[in-house]
């Protein structure tokens, strides 16, 4: 995540005070970001990774500790020469986010603290017919109340963020369209803030965009800067990280690859078009090919399919093969467009990765050779929780960017 430092060069005259404040804020964020991503380190290691001198680092740690964001343990003897140095770590309950994921098949909530510490998380199968926004918010309230109650005493809850299978405006959490939920024009951010009694605004973003952010920040690929995340459920979502930054479009609607045309002779999609990627490679198509359409729905159907696949059921395996083929057709386009280092498969593609991946890779063969050879297709390292972790990262980024401002106003 880039942090702007455009003011740092302006040191003359009246800008001197502003630049010093900006520099301090930047350094405070840099120390917190390192601790957030890398975990506990000694104070002397922090001086090495930040390039700041010992007294500056000591001051910054003091300020972060006063804000309740870090703790400092007793001095330990470092490897090699040098004085013993205290170990600094984040204090997870100093900044906590309620992360929410609204999918068609499931609802999930998690309490996540700075450092990526997951205090608790719960995912429940979605009851069909409970898709109305007010009912959804009531369900989220019921799921999240015990998690918030279970937080350690003195926890500082910053707010909430929701990942949704739909097209959401980043600025205010307004959901324009969630075809697989049957939602249009839902002011979800405001409704969640009111319903949960949490500070507004509640951040709302597309689930795949947040899956991409989660995998980029916490997926264990520290050197990757170009990543495409694909979430598979009833629909297909796509999130892109380009050059270390989320690629969102002008309002946050970019990455709707699930509605790219892949088969002109395909079936009708919830968006109104025909032959979209998600009608050919999504959950409904997979279940229909496996002969499970109508037998069960949602997570229950996927459980049944997994059992049959593991048992070697021929129709289930062929359904995986064909769905993998259509998955790969869509990935081929994404490889051509974005030249990613890694394409991460989340959601049901994470779950069925081993059964889909060979045919998916074969179907990418038409992609530009050099791009294809660079792009590893990988299962999600975080698993089903990637959008939740990304939702938490979205809010925690604000604290990391300006710890003092966020916590003083909280
Ligand atoms: Zn569509």
Commentary on this structure:
With 410 residues, the protein is α/β, with parallel strands linked by helices. The chain folds into three domains: 15-90, Orthogonal Bundle (Arc Repressor Mutant, subunit A), CATH 1.10.10; 94-209 and 387-409, ATPase, nucleotide binding domain (Nucleotidyltransferase, domain 5, 2-Layer Sandwich); 221-380, ATPase, nucleotide binding domain (Nucleotidyltransferase, domain 5), CATH 3.30.420.40. The protein is built from 15 helices and 16 strands. It has helices at 15-38, 43-50, 54-66, 133-149, 188-196, 207-218, 277-281, 283-289, 298-310, 314-338, 348-351, 353-363, 369-374, 386-401, 403-409; strands spanning 41-42, 70-76, 85-90, 96-102, 106-113, 117-125, 157-164, 167-169, 174-178, 183-186, 203-206, 227-232, 236-242, 245-246, 342-347, 376-379. A five-stranded mixed β-sheet has the order 6-5-4-7-11, sandwiched between helices. A five-stranded mixed β-sheet has the order 14-13-12-15-16, sandwiched between helices. The longest helix has 25 residues, at 314-338. The two termini are 23 Å apart. The chain binds zinc ion. Zinc ion binds at residues 259, 269, 271, 273, 276.
